[in-house]
């Protein structure tokens, strides 16, 4: 089982780039890229909170998905 971050899909739906999210969230563009590509094995809780706030997401299920 793997925790998958749906950030790439969310950004595509909104027409946002990683740079736009970085500017709105205060999380570095490099870190956004790593999270977006599911390259990170850990994600800082503060980064999650900033990303969710920038995207106006209240439910973590909108951002994460468990995959087999």
UniProtKB/TrEMBL annotation:
PROSITE patterns: HTH_CROC1. CDD domains: HTH_XRE (cd00093). It comes from Bacillus glycinifermentans. This is XRE family transcriptional regulator. One of its GO terms (molecular function) is DNA binding. Gene3D superfamilies: lambda repressor-like DNA-binding domains. Residues 7-63 form the HTH cro/C1-type domain.
